[in-house]
Design brief:
Layout: H1 2-8, E1 11-12, H2 13-23, H3 32-44, E2 48-53, E3 57-62, H4 64-72, H5 74-90, H6 98-112, H7 120-139
Antiparallel strand pairs: 1-3, 2-3
Length: about 140
């Protein structure tokens, strides 16, 4: 997620923390102790480079390798964004009814006890089903 935010525009670590807090609707802000080591790792992997500005502040920008990584992991990034949006809505206070809680556990069990192996095609089929259901649920009631 940090890498995708840096792709949008060059940012300082503090700006990244604030942007994530905004995307979570103010209900969560990552700690500097998790963001700055991740930025260091991204730099070591060659996904970002930084320059020093305003004293010791570092400005991060994405590299071609970082862009390539984002393209290769686009499905994962989209999934993370959807979960963040759901978390922001959940933090607003409304929790699902108990019946839905049980249904979530049933889905988890179905995934854990899936028979027949997880071929690439089967993985993609199940991923599409789950992502589609999540999208329909997050959109709310149909306009019947």
């Amino acid at each position: 997620m940090l890498l995708s935010l840096i792709e949008e525009k060059q940012r300082h670590g503090y700006e990244l923390i604030k942007e994530l807090e905004t995307q979570f609707g103010g209900s969560y802000a990552p700690s500097p102790g998790s963001v700055y080591p991740t930025l260091t790792l991204l730099e070591e992997l060659g996904h970002v480079r930084s320059t020093t500005t305003e004293g010791s502040k570092r400005l991060y920008e994405i590299t071609d390798e970082g862009r390539r990584y984002l393209r290769e992991n686009e499905a994962m990034l989209n999934s993370v964004r959807k979960r963040m949006a759901m978390a922001a809505r959940a933090a607003s206070g409304e929790m699902p009814p108990e019946d839905l809680h049980h249904a979530m556990h049933t889905l988890r069990a179905a995934l854990m006890f899936h028979r027949g192996g997880w071929s690439e095609e089967e993985t993609e089929r199940v991923r599409r089903i789950i992502e589609s259901a999540a999208e329909e649920i997050s959109q709310g009631r149909d306009n019947e």
